[in-house]
tRNA N6-adenosine threonylcarbamoyltransferase (Dawidia soli), 334 residues
Amino acid sequence: MRPVILAIESSCDETSASVIRNGKVLNNIIASQAVHQKYGGVVPELASRAHQQNIVAVVDAALEGAGVTRTDLDAVAFTRGPGLMGALLVGVSFAKGLAMGLKIPLIEVNHMQAHVLAHFIDEPRPSFPFLCLTVSGGHTQIVLVKDHLDMEVIGQTQDDAVGEAFDKAAKILGLPYPGGPLIDKHAQQGNPRAYKFSETVMPGLDFSFSGIKTQFLYFLRDKKKENPAFVEENLADICASLQHHLVSMLLTRVEQACARTGIRQVAIAGGVSANQGLRQRLQALGGQHGWDVFIPAFQYCTDNAGMIAMAAHYKYQRGLFAPLDVTPLARMPL
Ligand code: KG4
Ligand code: ZN
């Protein structure tokens, strides 16, 4: 059954490859880069080098796991952007070399579009139109999804992404990078109403997450003046309250977006969609409003090539191929 497409993701700090056959994702191999942990964030130069080291093994594992050889491939897909330029270059160059060598077409994929299309890997799949809250380390968007390849951003952050807010707050708490999952973990034992934070309200459906960093820093500074062991003694409550605040900011906008558009199908995507608080509260809110809610499996929340493969499948069907002189884009609109 055809087509068989190999997809490569290298936009940030995961080197990933996936094989899709006739629209079915056969596997999703991910090599994470531990090298960034001690720096408290992704170091672009180190990310590029790690991609270079990992890419052959990751691609081979994806092909082998799917039981296909290079000569079975009908196309090679890669993430064109947005992302770190040096990291993207590794995936783009590898895909070009393979496409050239095998004389098969090349497919370029927008990483943010692919996060949304992760919802088409498994059942249940949303129908069009639906709204997708795409939340990652670099983006916070409400996307109106009209078709597989036709999407419009109707709200977005004007400064930091929500994943960045999670990671920066975690760093202030002394937790290692990436701190989002750790805040989530500690939050599960805490009281979400223990502490209150305030919100910068942006016009329309936009977000602002840059203020929370400073607010959080000053909140902890003042509390530590009263009690130097404040963080250690109250970590779970601090994480639960901060998470509650960030998730409320997201869900308020989702509710407004649904009211404005009249759409009753809501999906979440991107790294922060792995957050338990967001997943649970979206389910509950969906229940209240009678929405159909779509939450991706954990392996398709954070960066992965399965979603790139899914996007590539739709592009292949429409004959949307990239020229061999295509270049990566650090910024790439939907
Ligand atoms: O989509 P992704 O893997 O990479 C980007 O495209 O940015 O998202 C990574 C982001 C990081 O900020 C990470 O802390 C956050 O997603 N993240 C989480 C959770 N898992 C990952 N944030 C909160 N709770 C989680 N469980
Ligand atoms: Zn991503």
Observations:
- Residues 126-296 form a domain with the Nucleotidyltransferase; domain 5 fold (CATH 3.30.420.40).
- Residues 230-261 form the longest helix (32 residues).
